Amino acid sequence: MAMTHFNIEEIKETIATCELSFRQGRDLLIDPQGIDSLRARAADSGDMLPDLKQQCQALLEKSPEAVSTFESCGESLEAERMAAAYLFFEDTAYSEWAKKRITALIELDTWLYPVHASHIQHTDHTMTNTGSYIARAHSLLADVYSEDENKTLAEGLRKNLFQPYLESTRERLEWWTKEQHESNWKIMCHGETGLMICEFAEYWSESREALGLAVEGVIEIFDMVPPEGDWPEGVCYWLATVNMGLRLAEALKRLTNGAVDLFEHPALKVTGDFVMMLATSAGRVFNVNDNHDYFMNMHSEGIATLASGMEREDWMYIARLFPTDTYLYLAAVNPEQTDKIPERTTALFPYSGMATMRSGWNKTDTFIGVKCSASDVPHSHLDAGTFCIESGGQWLVRDEGYWPYAHAIGFFDNEDLRWNWDGLISVGHSTLLFDGQGQTWGKDYPGHIESLTSGDGWDMIITEATKTYPGLITKFIRTFLFVHPGTIIIRDVVQCEGERHAEWLLHYAGEIRSEGLVSVIENNGASMTIVPFLPDRENGWRCNDVLSTSTYMEEISQMDKSPTIRYRGFSPFRKADSFEFLFGLQIDGKTDGSEFDFETEGDSWVLKLNDQSVIRPDGDSLKMD
């Protein structure tokens, strides 16, 4: 599964012995020789500079000294934003505010996020995030810091991050430091701290040792990336935190004069494919687990850095599909670098249990994302067999994705309390319920994607999720057949332990209505019809429209949030020991379902499409004549 390993010990030896080029002005992440060009591109980029000035004028109304441990990460980000304004406008009001904010932050007793204090000994990711933002801001403010101020700042950073980080990593004391640990925390903490060390390496005698530890942690994560380049936490978590590893790679390459180049790691040569293939053509993201369906600054910066560093034109197309207005994004997306529309239209990521199909890369093309995976990974949901559909530039079937965090009441208690949140459990996804019950969390209850195959004008994904419902079923095979450009057939074959009531869930976007047995989704001009064929109706059929609202306190804002789930559920009246569900979904379909001709043939059936295609059962799956 893993990538070809870098020799970590050799790299640590290189860091320990090579000549270091200590910082020479604004050279942590951007080329000082290219600042004039960067300023010119910012001026030509439309609203970037006016928006930045407006944000920073608002910050000038705030006290730079008003900081707290609880908000240190966001407050350090504000310092970097003011430093970026100084880079572009050279207004000392911005630089002085940023310096005062940084001074106030390093005078705090700790940056350890209070919610993490119960399970962290020395260093958490909010500490490393804060240190990284301060380092980036300091680099942009290079010409307004005196040497004495640099030394004072380095002493404060030693207290707040550098020393706790050494204590955490020398003996691998924190859970995120363990060699085989696999989560975004590891690359985030090592990458962000390593970036800070690159900025202040000349001030700490242990800098080379600490850089070696940071690089070791980042490489351990890179080494875990499978050959397809994916990550089970999902695109947004992976791209945000791999971006932190990329920043360390970039700064370290500068610091060591090219002696250490992490961009040569094979994981970085493929992981952009994961981002590319889970992106929709309309500029959204297949947002399984605790992910958003959009990119924030760090995500856009990450794919732009990958595209530029790997010289991948198709990745650069994705980077430009998700633009943002930061100096780091602008520095990575050189207007002279060409891009091209990706050629791939399907992808299977077996390690993460995700697969995608699409009719093309035009904004209105149809995109289908499918997930069926293990649940015992960070930020997982109980969603084996779930799917999303985008067409006409709009979601038609959506994923609940991110719900506001609430550590204090068990949001991350995977053993128990997490599974009280509707958006994280099976009822919050387009999968099945049995007797009202969903899937079970744990390493013993995985789902997986069996295959992705393609033919002339069609693609097919088969998932297997039997183990995810222990004690309830003995078989759950789900097949997605995508007939280009806009027909989707979904077949479920289920065997139960005893007789069960089964319900088929569809989490729609926009509005839904009934036209007889046909359901019609409409969302901002895009539409899809859903035609149920099996189970048959002779013993009754139920269609439920459910809206459920949850209210609880979100931890960062300390305000009540009320996220919702909304779905249409389909189910036969009666319990049974086996079920076969068969649905036809048609983009921009006829509300009478006449695109489909469904006929039974003895104990079997045949489904004919208007284009004369014929679909039949093939064991537990489908085939098309």
Q: Keyphrases for this structure?
A:
alpha+beta, 24% strand, 5-stranded antiparallel β-sheet, Beta-galactosidase, Chain A, domain 5, 8-stranded antiparallel β-sheet, Glycosyltransferase, 2 domains, 32% helix, 625 residues
Question: What does this entry look like structurally?
Answer:
This protein has an eight-stranded antiparallel sheet with strand order 7-8-9-10-19-14-13-12, with no helix packed on it. A five-stranded antiparallel sheet has the order 1-2-3-4-5, with helices on one face. A four-stranded antiparallel sheet has the order 6-11-18-15, with no helix packed on it. It is α+β, with helices and mostly antiparallel strands and 625 residues long. It has helices at 8-17, 35-43, 48-60, 72-89, 92-106, 125-140, 147-170, 184-200, 207-224, 235-255, 271-278, 297-310, 313-321, 327-332; strands spanning 346-349, 354-358, 367-371, 386-391, 394-397, 432-434, 448-455, 458-464, 473-483, 487-500, 502-506, 511-515, 518-523, 526-534, 541-549, 552-554, 559-561, 564-572, 576-587, 596-601, 604-609, 614-618, 621-624. The chain is built from 14 helices and 23 strands.
